[in-house]
TrEMBL record:
Organism: Rhizobium vallis
Residues annotated as domain ATP-dependent DNA ligase family profile: 134-225
Protein name (record): DNA ligase (ATP)
Keyword Transferase: no
Reaction(s) catalysed (UniProt annotation): ATP + (deoxyribonucleotide)n-3'-hydroxyl + 5'-phospho-(deoxyribonucleotide)m = (deoxyribonucleotide)n+m + AMP + diphosphate
SUPFAM superfamilies: DNA ligase/mRNA capping enzyme, catalytic domain, Nucleic acid-binding proteins
PANTHER family: DNA LIGASE 1 (PTHR45674:SF4), DNA LIGASE 1/3 FAMILY MEMBER (PTHR45674)
Gene Ontology biological-process entries: DNA recombination; DNA repair
InterPro entries from the UniProt entry: ATP-dep_DNA_ligase (IPR050191), DNA_ligase_ATP-dep_C (IPR012309), DNA_ligase_ATP-dep_cent (IPR012310), LigD_ligase_dom (IPR014146), NA-bd_OB-fold (IPR012340)
Stated family: Belongs to the ATP-dependent DNA ligase family.
Length: 347
C-alpha cells in the first residue's frame, strides 16, 4: 500500500510524448538532445544551519539510495549514484516508470521504504534488498523524485531549479504509487529543521532556486541534519573476548584527498548477529598494510572495502567522532560518498 510522503506538510531517434494541445506555429520547433547515458549527480554540502532568504527552497532529507530513472523508448533503466544498473533490484519502481506516459525522461531522486508515519526507514530498505550484498528485489520501496534532468527529448540541466521543479510537479501531479514527488516544504529554514527533528526525520535539504543542475558538491544544494550521520570506511576492528561476536569496535577512516585519515572507532549500534557478520567479513579482508597508521595489541586491519553509516554527536578537537553509533553498511554499488575530512573545513 502506498503512503503519501508529506511529513512536514500534512521519426526522431528520441521519443516525444503526445502533446496536450497543438503546437503554436509561431514558436520554434526545438531540436532534440540525445539522452545522456548517465548524469553525474548533484550532491548536497553539509552545513550546520539552514540558509536564509527567498532564493532557497526546502525538502525533507530522505534516508535511502540515490537513484536516477532513465525512461527511454526501449525501456526503463534505474541507475545508482555510482553508475550501476539496479533496474532488477527495483522492479515495482521500474514498472511504475513505464506507466508514466512519457516518451523520454530522467528523474533524479531517492529510493526509500516508508514506515507508517511516512518516514524513510533505511534499515527496512536494506532488509527489502536482502541486506548488504543481498540479491533480493525490493517490492516495498518507493521512489521520491526531486528533480527532472531530461524530458521529452530535451536536456534540462541548464535550466534553473525553479523551472525544473515546476515541470516535475506538473509531470508527477497527484502520483501516489511507487513513484512520488518529494514535496517542497515552505517556511523559514530554521523552523523547518526544528519541525523535522521533532518528527524524528533525518533533516532537511536546501536548494538554490536560480541555479542549474551542476554535478558534484558545489554548494547549490545543502544538507542540514538533525543527528549527524555520515559514511566512513571500515579499516579494521578491535578484538574482544567479552563483546558479542568477538568484535569490540570498528576502526573508521575518512577520506583526505587520495589518502585515509583515522576518525576513531565505533563500538555501539550493532547486535550479536551484526558483529558476527562484520567480523567474518572483515577477517576475509585482512591486510598487513593498514590504511591508517595505528598501533594496538588487539587490532585487526582490513582492506578499505566495507562502508559503514555512522551517527555521531560531533567532532572532538583532535578530529575523532564524538559518541558514534553504527547504523548499517552501505552497498558498494550505492557508491555512498565516504566522508571527506575537507567537508569539515567547508562548513
Amino acid at each position: 500500500m502506498s503512503r503519501r510522503t508529506k511529513p512536514l506538510l500534512q521519426d526522431d531517434p528520441v521519443a516525444k510524448s503526445k502533446p496536450s494541445r497543438p503546437r503554436d506555429p509561431a514558436q520554434p520547433n526545438l531540436p532534440f538532445d540525445p539522452m545522456p547515458d548517465r548524469i553525474e549527480p548533484c550532491l548536497a554540502l553539509l552545513k550546520k544551519v539552514p540558509p536564509k532568504g527567498p532564493d532557497w527552497s526546502f525538502e525533507v532529507k530522505w534516508d535511502g539510495y540515490r537513484l536516477a530513472i532513465h525512461i527511454e523508448p526501449k525501456g526503463v533503466r534505474i541507475i545508482t549514484r555510482g553508475g550501476h544498473d539496479w533496474t532488477h533490484r527495483f522492479p515495482v519502481i521500474a514498472e511504475a516508470a513505464k506507466k508514466l506516459g512519457v516518451g523520454s525522461a530522467i528523474l533524479d531522486g531517492e529510493a526509500v521504504v516508508l514506515d507508517n508515519k511516512g518516514h524513510a526507514d533505511f534499515g527496512a530498505l536494506q532488509r527489502s534488498l536482502g541486506g548488504r550484498g543481498g540479491k533480493r528485489a525490493s517490492t516495498e520501496s518507493v521512489f521520491l523524485a526531486f528533480d527532472l534532468l531530461y524530458f521529452d527529448g530535451h536536456t534540462l540541466t541548464g535550466m534553473e531549479l525553479s523551472a525544473r521543479r515546476h515541470m516535475l510537479e506538473d509531470f508527477l501531479d497527484g502520483a501516489t504509487g511507487a513513484i512520488q514527488l518529494s514535496e517542497e516544504v515552505f517556511g523559514d529554514g530554521a523552523v523547518l529543521l526544528e519541525q523535522a527533528c521533532s518528527l524524528g526525520l533525518e533533516g532537511i535539504i536546501a536548494k538554490h532556486r536560480d541555479q542549474p543542475y551542476r554535478s558534484g558538491r558545489t554548494g547549490d544544494w545543502l544538507k542540514i541534519k538533525c543527528v549527524q550521520s555520515e559514511s566512513f570506511m571500515i579499516v579494521g576492528y578491535e578484538q574482544s573476548t567479552v563483546a558479542r561476536g568477538g568484535l569490540g569496535s570498528l576502526l573508521l577512516a575518512a577520506r583526505n584527498g587520495h589518502d585515509w585519515v583515522y576518525v576513531g572507532s565505533v563500538g555501539t549500534g550493532f547486535d550479536t548477529k551484526d558483529a558476527e557478520y562484520l567480523r567474518t567479513t572483515l577477517d576475509k579482508l585482512t591486510t598487513r598494510r593498514p590504511a591508517v597508521p595505528l598501533k594496538g595489541k588487539n587490532l585487526v586491519f582490513a582492506q578499505p572495502t566495507l562502508i559503514a553509516e555512522v551517527e555521531f554527536a560531533g567532532w572532538t578537537d583532535d578530529g575523532s567522532l564524538r559518541h558514534p553509533s553504527y547504523k548499517g553498511l552501505r552497498e558498494v554499488q550505492d557508491n555512498a560518498a565516504v566522508f571527506d575530512i575537507s567537508e569539515r573545513r567547508m562548513r
